[in-house]
Please model this.
Amino acid sequence: MLNDYFPVILQALAALGFAGAALGLSVLLGKKGSHNDTKETPYECGMLPIGKGAPRFSVKFYLVAMLFVIFDIEVVFMYPWAMSFKDLVTEGSMVLWSMAGFAGLLTIAYVYALKKGALNWKG
Model:
């Protein structure tokens, strides 16, 4: 059985050996960088970093982004089900009811987000 995995192990060892040799040679033969205060300052598009950093964003932006990702992923789960629905429905109607329950939970979650004001930009 080990003979079956020998080429894979050999390739992994060759890859690790090459990576280690490349890193080792770059440390041994590479130039050492100099450090000074000018090089250590952050580069901001040619402007000196004076003043505050990035402005604070409202939590609403992140909340809407998370809701989008959650509902987007759930729609991705619906797509394969819709493509194979014709084959699955021959096994029984449970497939339809399970997706109806899933869509019902999505609807409940959406209504809850609306009632909590998650998508209200004014407040």
In short: The chain has five helices and no strands. The helical segments are 2-29, 37-40, 59-83, 85-88, 94-115. The chain has a mean pLDDT of 86.
